[in-house]
């Protein structure tokens, strides 16, 4: 089973994301900031990371840069999921190594579409979700 690391300082957002991502067939691990997320990645690199931008301790962009420099850190598909809707943030995220970008609020259809776009789930898997 593929693993998705959900990184967000909001427990409500993590809970909603967990339900959506589990329905797509992923095992979910949660982290409330970038430092905690890095600890999980050092233990076992997930296939997918749903990543918030604005978090205490270490924000999503700092986490992304650190992740991409780690051994195996180029492998996870990273989808930013944030309230930062400006083109400058989107450009910075994609240039920094993100694979996709979702704006909050999000729903199952949006997450499923982005996961399909980056190859995390196949088109035929949407009927099972």
TrEMBL record:
Superkingdom of origin: Bacteria
Domain Response regulatory, chain residue ranges per copy: 3-119
Stretches of the chain forming a coiled coil according to its record: none
Location of 4-aspartylphosphate modifications: 52
InterPro entries listed in its UniProt record: CheY-like_superfamily (IPR011006), Sig_transdc_resp-reg_receiver (IPR001789), ST_Response_Regulator (IPR052048)
SUPFAM superfamilies for the chain: CheY-like
Keywords tagged on the record: Phosphoprotein
GO biological process: phosphorelay signal transduction system
Descriptive protein name: Response regulator
UniProt source species: Bradyrhizobium amphicarpaeae
């Amino acid at each position: 089973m593929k693993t998705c690391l959900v990184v967000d300082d909001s427990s409500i957002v993590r809970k909603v994301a967990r339900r959506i991502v589990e329905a797509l067939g992923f095992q979910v691990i949660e982290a409330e900031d970038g430092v905690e997320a890095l600890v999980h990645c050092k233990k076992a690199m997930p296939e997918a990371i749903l990543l918030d931008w604005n978090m205490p301790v270490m924000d999503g962009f700092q986490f992304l840069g650190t992740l991409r420099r780690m051994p195996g850190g180029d492998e996870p598909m990273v989808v930013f999921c944030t309230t930062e809707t400006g083109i400058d943030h989107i450009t910075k995220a994609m240039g920094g190594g993100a694979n996709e970008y979702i704006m909050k609020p999000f729903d199952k259809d949006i997450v499923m579409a982005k996961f399909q776009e980056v190859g995390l789930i196949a088109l035929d898997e949407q009927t099972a979700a």
